[in-house]
Model the fold of this input.
Amino acid sequence: MDIKKVHIVIPIVMAGIIGYFGTEIMDIKKVHILIPIVMAGIIGYLGTKIMDIKEVHILIPIVMAGIIGYLGQTDLNEAFSVLPSIPHISRPSSQPVRQVDLDETSLVISRQTDLNEAFSVLPRMSYPQPFVDKPQRTDVLLMSPWLAPIMWEGTFNRDILNAQYRQKKFVVGVATFAVKKYVRFIEGFLGSANKFFLSGHRVNFYLFTDHPEKVPSMKLAPEKSLFIIPVQNYSRWQDISMNRMDIISNRIRTHWHYEVDYLYSMDIDVQMFEHIGVEIIDTLVGTISSWQYTKPRDSNSYERRPESRAAIPSGEGDFYYAASFYGGSVSEVYKLTTACFKGVTEDRANGIEAKWHEESHLNKYLLYHKPTRLLSPEYYWDEELPRPQIIRVKRLSSVRKDLEEVRS
Amino acid sequence: MEICLFFLLHFRRHDLLESGEICSHTLPNPHSHICLDDSLEWASPLPSILPSLPRNLLHETTICRREARPAFPRWVFVLLCRLSYPQPRSLDQKRLDVLTLTPWLAPIVWEGTFNSELLDSAYKPLNLTIGVTAFAIGKYTMFVGRFVESAEKLFMKGYRVNYYIFTNDPQVIPRVQLQPGRSLSIVPIKKYSHWQEISMRRMEAINRHIAEVSHREVNYLFCLDIDMVFHNPWGVETLGEMVAAIHPGYYNVPRSQFPYERRSSSAAFIPDSQGDFYYAGAVFGGLLKQVYEFTRACHMTILADKANGIMAAWQEESHLNKRFFSHKPSKLLSPEYVWDDTKPKPPEVRLIRFSTVNKDYKEIRD
Done:
């Protein structure tokens, strides 16, 4: 074939045109365009010298230019964008995964049950028959007077619950704060949560910290993700504690109601020793305090001064709930945290601080907005307490620490 | 001041809250709260009403939320008024003799496990309407009078109730005096020649009725047998997403002895080694949407059997049990809620709320 060197210009120009339009249409960086052009040039030049090039071969660099241009926008974009310098942070999805109307109190049911699945939804499983006249536990209260189940070991079959939960494809978020010296607890928390918290199910851990660089690099299970969010610290530990409500409430409004279905707030200075599974998933969940689960209501450490917004009059009260572990559907947690922080702000304006800070406000809220599920003290056991027979399993417990030292 | 009306919160409430036009307290003084009438249009929310309210009262206003769409599975009960009731104690199980929670954490409702007053104070403000379906075909029309009379006194007292009586003979249905807020409508249906067929067609009839009528009228629906009478209160403790009742004849019997359909060729087949409870076909219910799906699924399995020329051992009760086994109910009612009067009352059953009327089956079925 009588190709003149001038004809080599044709594929180069075409590659250039494809590449140029690529940047307009496909968001390729202009530097990428050089690649197909150079290749076209090399093949063209060498081709006439070395190989027996036919006209049709000129198509090759042109097609390759087109392909590289198209593919380049997906992979090469990543390499050129700016990532935070801490490599183990995974990036949150930028598109809305699910929308939850914050006015809803309901569970988000992700899709309607397929009516064609009339025959069998749960996989065949074998488990002992529940007998109506044989209660599993007689030593503890299993249901509140408003028929909310209370989670105690021995009352539920996690296999059935898992099978039911898996069909729904929920995502659960956990918000936890590691500010100032509390960063030392991160490793223990994440390590044990990775193993024991909703094992096998999707969880997003949201770690708020004022020292993101101090977060240890941790390998998490594939369905678990860690998001590190920088946060301001305050001089008073009480303020740090109480402002968590505000931070959570804002974050739900801006991000989390797109990202998760259920959200739990947990203290960082804890470790898990036993599985905490899908039995905790419900619309509004509170944990019964391990210090006060035996006390009569008038001995509970509710805030009693009527000047405080967290005041509970004597003669009222169901349980004393621990602020270390609470949660529920993202819209319910939003309402709870907004209401509690509103109380905190008003108290501050009136120069009063509730006895147990945001825990007092939480108790007030949960007294008048009954939780739909309660967790027994198995789910937050204070390490300083000896464990009685009733608590058969210690799933999550606080880490021994010198309070004075760690709060300073 | 004790006005207690409700209003629908506009999605702009965040703006309203932030601009300070409305305040949201968590119940500082329960008796001073005001909630506004829900006839407020979305387009003209709160601010237009605010100026007419006394200023001092406004600062103590609690915004009470009325759910825009009441058919939610799990209500968070909001207590609006001071209520005094005994404290629940963590170590104080009320019923030591019976199972109160299934392995999948559905409550089993027994006398002693719940506080009616507490539940009423939470449910009443929600303005729910509860539907009841019952089939009175052929000679079964004679049970309608007693059923409705006893329901008027004991079923969901104080709530709006719509009775739907399905019958082939509307003329014969007696007119019973109803409390205000309660209504009875007669749904004419065809009478099939065999009583088994009548029984099994109920699922289809209920399903169609929900799609055509009741979805506009009720939030929860209960499907009950007509040949029964209420003896004790049946209240909102029974409301749930999908509710089943434990059959009085089989509640303490091993699963291999449950009268499930045991022929594998049937769509209602449950093998010997499986099964949680034997549920009664006489009582089931729940949120409207769930009952719709439930009846549709049951009817589909019934049709599948029909196509294969097989009829399940206990007609639609077998199909109901199959469905409840694969899609577990979210709440169970103890045999107090579906009792057989011919049986002696055991100690576990402290109260009989709803039970059969003695009858001669031969005489009324044909």
Q: What stands out?
A: Chain B touches chain A through 76 residues (CB under 8 Å). Residues 1-73 of chain B have pLDDT under 50 and may be disordered.
